[in-house]
Design goal:
This protein is an alpha+beta fold and about 100 residues long. It has one domain (about 15-100): TusA-like domain (Translation Initiation Factor IF3). Helix content is about 30%, strand content about 20%. It is built from 3 helices and 4 strands; from the N terminus they run αβαβαββ. The protein has helices at about 10-15, 30-45, 65-80, and strands at about 20-25, 50-55, 80-85, 95-100. The chain has a 4-stranded mixed sheet, covered by helices on one side.
Length: about 100
């Protein structure tokens, strides 16, 4: 098995220089955080790359936004609202790219 100096998946996940906007969700309750993300996605320009940061795991078993936000973002991608949705390597953020909308 090869040894890597850096995490090779980090390079696959996203280019930190491509991030246009960061939304800090901190330790918002799940429902409030999902409402905030929904609003951000509705108002975002197509092609915008957004980092959605949240409080990292503390090691005490308290749930972070990682799973509920991940489920929400995957559904948004299935619905065609996102082009990409990837977790950051530190486990305390997601990076999303807003989909180009087609005229209705």
């Amino acid at each position: 098995m090869p040894l890597f100096d850096d995490n090779p998946l980090e390079k696959l996940a996203f280019d930190p220089g491509a991030i246009d906007k960061t939304v800090d969700l901190g330790e918002l309750p799940v429902a409030r955080a999902l409402e905030e993300v929904d609003t951000v996605l509705q108002n975002a320009s197509p092609g915008l790359c957004i980092r959605l940061r949240f409080a990292p795991a503390r090691g005490d078993g308290t749930e972070t936004l990682f799973q509920p936000l991940g489920r929400f973002l995957l559904q948004a991608r299935r619905d065609g609202r996102l082009e990409r949705c990837l977790p950051a390597s530190d486990g305390a953020a997601y990076v999303v790219v807003v989909a180009h909308r087609t005229p209705e």
